[in-house]
Amino acid sequence: MFGLIKRWKALEAKGIMGINRRNADYVLKYNDRHLYPIVDDKIITKLRAIEAGIHVPEMYGIIETEKEIDKLQSIIGEHTDFVIKPAQGAGGDGILVIADRFEDRYKTVSGRIISHDEIEHQISNILTGLYSLGGHRDRALIEYRVTPDQIFRSISYEGVPDIRIIVLKGYPVMGMLRLPTRQSNGKANLHQGAIGVGVDLATGVTLKGTWLNAKISKHPDTGNAVDGVQLPNWDGFMKLAAGCYELCGLGYIGVDMVLDQDKGPLILELNARPGLNIQIANDCGLTKRTHAVEAHLAELEAKGITESVEERVKFSQGLFGHVPTKAEA
Ligand SMILES: Nc1ncnc2c1ncn2[C@@H]1O[C@H](COP(=O)(O)OP(=O)(O)O)[C@@H](O)[C@H]1O
Ligand SMILES: [Mg+2]
Hints:
Blueprint: H1 2-12, H2 19-30, H3 36-40, H4 42-51, E1 59-63, H5 72-76, E2 82-86, E3 96-102, E4 105-108, E5 113-114, H6 116-128, E6 140-143, E7 162-168, E8 171-179, E9 195-199, E10 206-211, E11 214-216, H7 234-248, E12 252-260, E13 264-271, H8 278-282, H9 287-303, H10 309-319
Antiparallel strand pairs: 1-6, 2-3, 2-6, 3-4, 4-5, 7-8, 7-12, 8-9, 9-10, 10-11, 12-13
This protein binds adenosine-5'-diphosphate (ADP) and magnesium ion.
Adenosine-5'-diphosphate (ADP) binds near residues 91, 92, 160 and 256.
């Protein structure tokens, strides 16, 4: 606990953004309330993304009512692996990642065998709103299971790592790689016990990590170093994230992406209230960066200029790198 306070104090000097500032100066200011459903419902996000030509995990089907639970078999069809999730869930709660079939049962990523009845029960829980924001009735989404790219094999434990980039008015401001651990059950959510690893925005090289609020440099399950890893296709991820501004219209978002071994970069979800732990993972506050973007935007506005996705990414990469470039070194 003491160490944590010390760390947040040290971060404050680095322009850390607290929850009140995030809500007042960013979420409320830049995110139009009426646009929230686009990001708060994963089915709507998916349909929007498909419309915009942005790649997402394929949707196998939707279950909306208890009566429709019977449709599960036909939705799954011949697929041996798939994911069931609450459309309005958050923080990894209520997500079931099925990796294989086992006779007439199913196997989760961690090897747990579950019956068809258990799956139906889980879907019924999703529908009643057990996992949704505000406890409202929800829909269950059944989708393609992502298989992470080989690059993550040594630094991740089961499950699918995801890449989170915070985007302000279309400008990436900070990035983080989230790695599932034995504890997080194949999910990359920090509060499930995943590791957050900072990412140098300029290059896509990983920095040190944070796990359960402690600083780490090795994965607790694999023992391998999490820093110094070059994420593949980094410019592609930056452009994908920056383009989500046009996709949803929200000015302050966390864009969650994955790298599938066959399908490449995919958008998993968008978040209108992205968490602040990304600052610990990067050992850097958000405020200076968001201010830099806001100052840049004010300048552009005075000149009547709006920048393209490529220009925005270039701006962020020029300013928000951690690793000194050759010119600086
Ligand atoms: N289609 C999928 N295939 C494999 N793993 C997934 C899939 N969807 C989600 N996950 C895992 O679950 C985590 C949480 O999923 P996400 O869709 O971001 O929901 P939440 O809003 O609960 O965070 C992801 O970070 C990933 O590790
Ligand atoms: Mg998520």
